[in-house]
From TrEMBL, chain A:
EC number: 1.2.7.1
Name the UniProt record assigns to this protein: Pyruvate:ferredoxin oxidoreductase, delta subunit
Presence of keyword NADP: no
Principal EC category: oxidoreductase
Keyword annotations from UniProtKB, A to Z: Oxidoreductase, Pyruvate
Organism the protein comes from: hydrothermal vent metagenome
UniProt cross-references to InterPro entries, sorted A to Z: 4Fe4S_Fe-S-bd (IPR017896)
Length: 70, 296
């Protein structure tokens, strides 16, 4: 079982210019900006589950990312 | 070189790996004003590296690669350590040199490139850990600065030999106890930014990688100064979360804690007069805007 990050679309504020998770993710090309839905998306096979995106998103009080077990 | 050189022959297009196709279609080669804002919306020049989950060094790698002004004309020189694990996953020309030898290799490379391509701008960027830059390779690092070789040296400072289990390094802070340095560090952290200033570097920055816009400005200006004026040096704090006993999600906080006022990684920038004059000619528009705001 692996822990990976998942974005809750309704809470994500990427349409307002927030790029916190995309900026601070240590993995390349893992959290991307979906230009159609205007939210951040996690590419699950690349996610190592380090939880940094959850930390920065929660610190900004958006709480739009959570870890799920796959 | 531009994107043309990595284009795929149409007949082989469908059998090429997805990642390579994405790199050709969405990579930022040849784009003006590259920066950290491109990440997430275009293909990055680093892919599926093998560093630990949550490693701050990989955040630094992403920013450095996103901020190179001309990645298609850049050659990076690496050295042994965690950085050498990443270079095989990087879509920029790179050379792996012997431990500590990186600035000597880069000197020769820069001279050969300026001889072979006299009309083109070719950037050489050295990227190595603190062991390679300060302990084992200090001779080569300093000699290249004394000789005024025109390339950028970037040091990923994690304050110990993380790759081999936590031995004491010259850049380790005084009194720090690591897994394989149980007696604690006996002397002060080597002040390499100060040494760089007095050794002839024209642009010296010491900082953490917790603020991408600052990293972008530093990398960009360091490479521009290195093209025209002389050697430049950037020291980035990229803590090894495993060796300092942190959880994988605590790397960012560790960097923020270390960059406060009077902490050892407080932001420091040194620009020589020559380099300042050159940078003013490169960024005249920004200067004018700032002045306009002030006069209002």
């Amino acid at each position: 079982m692996y822990a990976v990050a998942e974005v809750i679309d309704d809470l994500c504020v990427a349409n307002k210019g927030c790029r916190l998770c995309i900026m601070y993710c240590p993995e390349a090309n893992t959290i991307l900006f979906d230009k159609e839905k205007k939210v951040a998306v996690v590419v699950e096979p690349r996610c190592k589950g380090c939880e940094l995106c959850v930390v920065v998103c929660s610190a900004a009080k958006h709480n739009a990312i959570e870890l799920v077990h796959r | 070189m531009s994107k043309e050189k990595i284009k795929i022959n149409q007949e082989f297009y469908d059998i090429m790996p997805l990642e390579y196709r994405e790199l050709v279609e969405e990579g930022t080669y040849g784009k003006e004003n590259r920066g950290w804002k491109d990440v997430g919306e275009s293909k990055e020049l680093i892919e599926e590296h093998s560093l630990c989950a949550g490693c701050p060094e990989s955040i630094a790698f992403r920013y450095v690669l996103a901020c190179l002004p001309a990645p298609e004309d850049t050659i990076m020189v690496g050295s042994t350590g965690c950085t050498s694990l990443v270079f095989p996953h990087v879509a920029v020309h790179n050379i792996h040199s012997l431990f500590g030898n990186q600035n000597a290799v880069a000197s020769g490379l820069k001279r050969a490139l300026s001889f072979r391509f006299p009309d083109k701008i070719k950037d050489v960027v050295v990227l190595a850990g603190d062991g390679a830059t300060v302990d084992i390779g200090l001779d080569m690092t300093l000699q290249s600065w004394f000789r005024q070789e025109k390339f950028t040296t970037i040091c990923f400072d994690n304050e110990l030999y993380a790759n081999t289990g936590g031995q004491s390094s010259g850049l380790m802070q005084k009194g720090f106890v690591a897994k394989m340095a149980p007696a604690g560090k006996k002397f002060d952290k080597v002040p390499l930014p100060e040494i760089a200033k007095s050794s002839g570097c024209h642009y010296v920055v010491k900082m953490t990688v917790s603020k991408p816009n600052r990293v972008e400005k530093a990398i960009r200006e360091a490479i521009l100064v290195a093209r025209e004026i002389g050697p430049t040096y950037i020291q980035l704090y990229t803590p090894c979360i495993l060796e300092i006993g942190k959880q994988m999600m605590e790397g960012l906080q560790e960097m923020r804690d270390s960059e406060g006022p009077n902490k050892r990684f407080e932001f420091e920038e040194y620009v020589s007069d020559e380099a300042r004059a050159y940078l003013d000619t490169v960024n005249p528009k920004k200067k004018k805007r700032k002045k306009a705001i002030v006069t209002k």
